[in-house]
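User: Structure with pyridoxal-5'-phosphate, tokens only please.
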Amino acid sequence: MTRVFNFSAGPATLPEPVLRTAAQEMLDWHGSGMSVMEMSHRGKEFIAIHAEAEALLRELLGVPANYKVLFLQGGAIGQNALVPMNLLRGKTAADYVDTGEWSKKSIKEARHYCSVNVAASSAAGGYTSVPKQSTWKLDPNAAYVHICSNETIGGVEYHWTPDTGAVPLVADMSSNILSRPVDVSRYGLIYAGAQKNIGPAGLTIVIVRDDLLGGALPITPSAFDYKQQAEADSMLNTPPTYAIYIAGLVFNWIKAQGGLKAMEAHNRAKAAVLYDFLDATSFYTSPVAREDRSLMNVPFKLKDEALDEAFLKGAQALRMLQLKGHRSVGGMRASIYNAMPVEGVQALVAYMKEFEVRHG
Ligand SMILES: *Cc1c(COP(=O)(O)O)cnc(C)c1O
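Assistant:
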């Protein structure tokens, strides 16, 4: 068996030890005689798996006691609707900061439920930076302020936490959650789809301050009412049990690596291998402002886009996959989440150098 270096933006590469444990436990989890997939979500085995996953996530992120952790379905795109449905709490407007494709989607969806004030946008600059907070025009009556902490497509990441005063800050952290420590207490709500840095698709994580619960619009489906799900320990309906189990294994793996500080050091070192090379050549270019470059998703362009096809083919021959950039921006994109080893990035850079010598 040879595994590839998978640079996919999501679903993405997972830590190999996690996959090995899952394989070993596939037919018989801890002597239960069952696969986790076959367990009742109300049985003592699964309740223990669920509780351990939540406890580990709380420990890794240092989630304060007055926050609920929910394991839901519907993805981050589902949350684009569920956030306004749950958090408007009688208000009629919300602030959004527009930093790229994912922010745009969040804004478009929120407009079905409330009046959206785009407090700042980097659209004019082609979504290559995060607007400085000094330029934001926040509405003091907004129900919340929404940001996308890492734009997975554009490769633009917040390396600072906005200050929104008494108005709750909401972040779509789908593609950088658990990549480094965050101060959860600065946020009212954090959400993330699992398939980038956490585990398989199908699980959506919501971390929400408990005083924000209880004001959902009457039309909110019960399965997506944060308060009802919090009261039911995320088991109002059948949760995505297998995805929660794998997420728990990933949390354990992160803890064994030394937690989020160690993840950050590993991710910084890894991203530097690629960005340092991009800065040293003119054959490839990085479009993103230096201070806002993502540690997780690295878009880059070849000098001559006629070479894109040959670049991708050569990478594939060396078992480096999914390097094609998103259709909305073109070029290339290397997604280098927690589970991507530094060897993967080193192999990519070695190939990029060799390709440049051949075609430069
Ligand atoms: C992947 C991604 C999404 C979409 O998640 P789904 O699970 O497909 O709903 C939303 N926001 C960001 C930042 C993402 O990276």
